[in-house]
Amino acid sequence: MKLELQSPKIFSDIVSIISEIVTEVRMKINKEGISLTAVDPANVAMVYFRLPATLFSEFELDREEEIGINLGSLKAVLRRCRPGSSLSLEKKENMLHLGINDRIKRDFSLALIEIESEEKPLPQWEFNSVIHLNSDVLVEVVEDCAIVSDACTFSAEPSKFIVEARGLNSARAEFSSDEAEIHSGNSTARFSLEYLSKFIKGSKISSRATLSFSDNHPMRMDFHTGDVVLSFVLAPRIEQED
């Protein structure tokens, strides 16, 4: 296996975002590219990403590979990439060798690890509400809610989408079909802002976000850039409103 990325920033950003949710993962590498599906230790959130083979300037693969890696260690190496650096990845026995090429060539080796947890596929649900909006707006709304509470409520109607948080204080944002693309029946669900605050960092890779949810059902948040996909699933908070 030998891969090369001329522009590793998007890979570095994705690894950095996912590392806040899970620490040790299995990455799949096949002729389609690199992908990962993982569940957080609390079994509350799931993350998925796909980096297509077409994004690589070199993609040599004799057979499908699965590599277990510590994301903290991988993130630390990827942070050493400067603008204009290229990145090579090569698996040899139980090591992943990474080369950063810019003014000089720098090499790193990371030990691969055994991951025993069972991999679950990303669920494919039918959602009652699907909202498309600018990711920078989503970031602002989630950050607003995090000021006043530890959870927020998503509410949607055919022509309206509301994000609201209430504690001693409150925050509320309302979108009409002019500000967001809304495909919805009537849905309401409440979610942890601790997790949402991590998910919205997907705005680094895409200017658009998609929220999919139903009444008191896990939600899905998707960020797409071409064939690059970063997706999150989050279980609802089932409790009385503050």
Question: What is the CATH topology descriptor of the largest domain?
Answer: Proliferating Cell Nuclear Antigen
Distance between the termini: 53 Å
Level of helix content?
Answer: 10-25%
Radius of gyration: 19 Å
Q: Outline, from the CA principal axes? A: elongated
Account of the 3D structure:
The chain is of the alpha+beta class and about 240 residues long. It folds into two domains: about 110 residues, Proliferating Cell Nuclear Antigen (Box), CATH 3.70.10.10; about 110 residues, DNA Polymerase III, Chain A, domain 2. It is about 15% helix and about 45% strand. The protein has four helices and 18 strands. It has a nine-stranded antiparallel sheet with strand order 6-2-3-4-18-17-16-10-14. Strands 5-1-7-8-9 form a five-stranded antiparallel sheet, covered by helices on one side. A four-stranded antiparallel sheet has the order 13-12-11-15. Strand 3 and strand 4 form a beta hairpin. Helix 1 runs antiparallel to helix 2 and helix 3 packs antiparallel against helix 4. The longest helix is centred in the middle third of the chain and has 14 residues. The mean pLDDT is about 95.
What's a quick, concise take on this entry?
The chain is of the alpha+beta class and 242 residues long. The chain has helices spanning 9-18, 71-78, 135-148, 193-199, and strands spanning 2-5, 24-30, 33-39, 45-52, 58-60, 65-70, 86-92, 95-101, 105-111, 129-134, 151-157, 160-166, 170-176, 181-184, 187-192, 208-213, 219-225, 228-234. The model has no long low-confidence stretch (mean pLDDT 94).
